[in-house]
Amino acid sequence: xxxxxxxxxxxxxxxxxxxxxxxxxxxxxxxxxxxxxxxxxxxxxxxxxxxxxxxxxxxxxxxxxxxxxxxxxxxxxxxxxxxxxxxxxxxxxxxxxxxxxxxxxxxxxxxxxxxxxxxxxxxxxxxxxxxxxxxxxxxxxxxxxxxxxxxxxxxxxxxxxxxxxxxxxxxxxxxxxxxxxxxxxxxxxx
Length: 190
Ligand code: ADP
Ligand code: 5GP
Known about the structure:
Elements: E1 5-9, H1 16-25, E2 30-32, E3 35-37, E4 51-53, H2 56-64, E5 68-75, E6 78-83, H3 84-92, E7 96-100, H4 103-113, E8 117-123, H5 127-137, H6 142-156, E9 164-167, H7 171-187
Parallel strand pairs: 1-7, 1-8, 2-7, 3-4, 8-9
Antiparallel strand pairs: 3-6, 5-6
Helix pairs in contact: 5-6
Residues 12, 35, 39, 70, 72, 74, 80-82, 100-102, 105 line the site of guanosine-5'-monophosphate (5GP).
C-alpha cells in the first residue's frame, strides 16, 4: 500500500522532537522516517533509532547513488537526508510516514508528494524563548546554539509555505492541535 505522509518542520528547539515523540505514542499507524545524518549522536540517541549516523564520505556516496529523496547541508558540514528506502520500508508495514526535517526539506517533500502529504510548521513563541529552550535542553554548546538561532530567524520567514502553522507555547495544546490536524488528514480521502 501507498500510505500518506506527514511533514513536520520547525526551527531547532521549537519542540519538534518532544511533539513527535508524543504523536508516535498515539496508535494511528504512523511511523517515523529515520533520516541519515553526518552529525554525531546527541544524548542517548542510537544509530537506527533517531538517525542513521554516517560519515561524510558515506553520505556523499549515497548522494551519488541517488539514495536520497531529499538532502540538505543543514549546518556547515552537517548533512541530513531522507532515504528513499525509508518511505518504502514504512509503507511496506502498512503505515503512514512521519518526517522530521528542516524547513527547506519540508517544502521540498511537500512539492514532491503534494496532496498525499500534509506539512506542518511548529512556531516557537519567540527567538528568545527558543534560546531558553536550547539552553535548558543542555545538549548543544554555546557556538552551536548561536548557529541554530541564526538559522531559526531565516526559517521562521518560510512558515507561510506550509499547509499549517502551529504555535508551540503551551505544549499540550500544541500536541493536541497537531494530532487533530494529522489524524483528520489521514482519515480523509485524497
Ligand atoms: P526540537 O526537536 O525542535 O529541536 P525539542 O523537542 O528538543 O526541540 O525541545 C527543545 C526543549 O524545549 C526541550 O528541552 C523540551 O523539553 C522543551 N520544550 C518543548 N516544548 C516546550 C514548551 N511548549 N514549553 C517549554 N519548553 C518546551
Ligand atoms: P538535529 O540536529 O536537531 O537533530 O536536527 C537539525 C535539523 O535537521 C532539524 O531541523 C531537523 O528537522 C533537520 N533534519 C533532520 N533530518 C532531516 C532530513 O532528512 N532532511 C532534512 N532536510 N532535514 C533534516
